[in-house]
């Protein structure tokens, strides 16, 4: 996988449903069209993350179908939906085997081999914090979960459910939100739980090239204790689960990729445990809600941290970029994501121009493709796949006033690889902006990549610099020869 890889997230069930509608017959993971895989390769994707392949939980499906929140979200987009088309949350895992409706383990092995032939890695989910409430292990080995035995909890009673044997088991939860009622909370202070989950990781590692670890910070010793201290007590384990897990998996799979969904300022701590990439939610929030100066401040973080950050403007947890940012701003934000150091994550439905997010439990999402949006992304991916964006050296690029203060709204950075330079300039504001740009080190002809325009610059301009004028949310990427 290249440095600064491009990763495509796919909601597996929705994707297969769309393919079935497009081609007029059902698909499993083993027989998806070759042209889709070829297109992913042509666009420069280094990895595909298939979200939601694991065996579906019947109880989680029933909970999702009865959920007013899920139904209301679907109804707002598709009033005539069929409740039977709602499936279980992919993050209430019944067992780590590929669901039969997707073709089972055999189908995903075929897909992995086809992707390998094209140089594309396959990434899958690992949900470390919890299992589905009806997962077989919940009844077979309840001590792997936080529980109070057959005696009901004296506090937080709504956090618990009873398994088939009458044992009270906690639902999985994030300490800042209500419990996820379709899940059972694993107890990471129990060494047997760690071994159980490590064995699940070993199974997964036989099927793919890497994992995206859901809510990874919840398994950290201090976070786990602070979330569940009333029920687990005791001293902190001597070692972090993730240190154990990453070491063990990489003994057999040295190149295995670990991506962590992590928040609360714990990204660096998780990176130090060996994760290849951690979510950069701070950048997402600044792109969506803050000003360009705040974005620049975030991008001045330590370079290794930047290289191990996963950048995104859309994923299955966030509102669709077109709605969250607005059309022009979302495209400008995607140029930022595609040209920064670190991993660059794009959602398939973002690329296709979906305007409103559907719950991940609903697969029959037949939204129309926005051709202009798709064409823009395809152009962007072609540009951002150039070797300089993956093997070059990145640095912020200073711009100066061209007579007013609008230069503060312009983001700029450059990549240099051997004798090739790339200068990225983005007006990240809803108003026109201009800036004076120095061109020292440039020589010969310059190409603006989005327009394809060739620009000949004189020695005088190179020595004195030039004024760039940009429309609201306009992006320009210049390719030049380094002197």
Explain what the structure shows:
The protein is of the alpha/beta class. The protein folds into 2 domains: 6-139 and 174-390, Alpha-Beta Barrel (TIM Barrel), CATH 3.20.20.80; 392-482, Golgi alpha-mannosidase II (Immunoglobulin-like, Sandwich). The protein has 19 helices and 22 strands. It has an 8-stranded parallel beta barrel, surrounded by 5 helices. The longest helix is centred in the middle third of the chain and has 15 residues, at 191-205. The mean pLDDT is 95.
Major sheet size, sense and barrel closure: 8 strands, parallel, barrel
Query: First CA to last CA: what distance?
Result: 30 Å
For this structure, the CATH topology of the largest domain is TIM Barrel
Q: Widest sheet: strand order?
A: 1-2-5-10-11-12-13-14
Going by CATH, the architecture of the largest domain would be Alpha-Beta Barrel
CATH homologous superfamily of the largest domain? Glycosidases
């Amino acid at each position: 996988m290249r440095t600064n890889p491009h990763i495509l997230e796919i909601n597996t069930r929705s994707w297969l449903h769309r393919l079935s509608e497009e081609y007029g017959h059902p698909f499993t993971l083993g027989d998806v069209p070759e042209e889709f895989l070829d297109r992913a390769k042509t666009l420069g994707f280094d990895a595909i993350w298939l979200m939601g392949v694991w065996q579906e939980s019947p109880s989680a499906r029933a909970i999702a179908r009865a959920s007013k929140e899920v139904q209301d979200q679907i109804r707002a987009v598709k009033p005539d939906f069929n409740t039977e088309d709602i499936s279980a949350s992919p993050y209430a895992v019944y067992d780590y085997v590929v669901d039969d409706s997707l073709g089972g383990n055999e189908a995903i092995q075929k897909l992995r081999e086809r992707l390998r032939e094209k140089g594309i890695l396959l990434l899958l989910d690992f949900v470390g914090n919890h299992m589905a409430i009806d997962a077989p292990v919940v009844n077979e080995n309840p001590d792997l979960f936080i529980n109070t035995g057959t005696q009901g909890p004296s506090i937080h009673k709504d956090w618990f459910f009873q398994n088939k044997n009458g044992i009270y088991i906690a639902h999985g939860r994030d300490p800042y939100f209500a419990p996820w009622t379709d899940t059972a909370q694993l107890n990471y202070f129990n060494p047997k739980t760690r071994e159980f989950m490590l064995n699940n990781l070993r199974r997964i590692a036989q099927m793919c090239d890497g994992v995206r670890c859901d809510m990874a910070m919840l398994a950290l010793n201090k976070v786990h204790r602070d979330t569940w201290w009333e029920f687990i007590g005791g001293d902190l384990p001597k070692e972090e689960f993730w240190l154990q897990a990453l070491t063990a998996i990489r003994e057999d799979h040295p190149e295995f990729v670990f991506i962590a969904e992590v928040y609360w300022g714990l990204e660096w701590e998780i990176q130090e445990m060996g994760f290849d990439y951690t979510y950069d939610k701070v950048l997402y929030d600044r792109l969506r809600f803050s000003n360009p100066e705040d974005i620049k401040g975030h991008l001045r973080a330590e370079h290794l941290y930047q290289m191990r950050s996963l950048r995104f403007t859309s994923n299955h947890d966030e509102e669709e970029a077109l709605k969250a940012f607005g059309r022009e701003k979302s495209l400008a934000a995607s140029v930022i994501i595609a040209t920064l150091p670190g991993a660059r994550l794009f959602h398939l439905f973002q690329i296709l121009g979906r305007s409103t997010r559907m719950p991940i439990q609903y697969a029959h999402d037949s939204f129309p493709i926005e051709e202009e949006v798709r064409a823009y992304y395809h152009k962007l991916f072609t540009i951002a796949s150039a070797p300089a964006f993956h093997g070059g050296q990145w640095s912020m690029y200073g711009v100066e006033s061209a007579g007013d203060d609008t230069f503060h709204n312009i983001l700029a950075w450059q990549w240099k690889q051997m004798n090739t330079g790339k200068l990225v300039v983005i007006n990240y504001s809803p108003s026109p902006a201009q800036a004076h740009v120095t061109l020292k080190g440039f020589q010969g002809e310059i190409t603006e990549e989005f327009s394809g325009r060739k620009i000949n610059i004189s020695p005088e301009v190179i020595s004195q610099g030039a004024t760039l004028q940009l429309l609201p949310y306009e992006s320009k990427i210049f390719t030049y020869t380094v002197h």
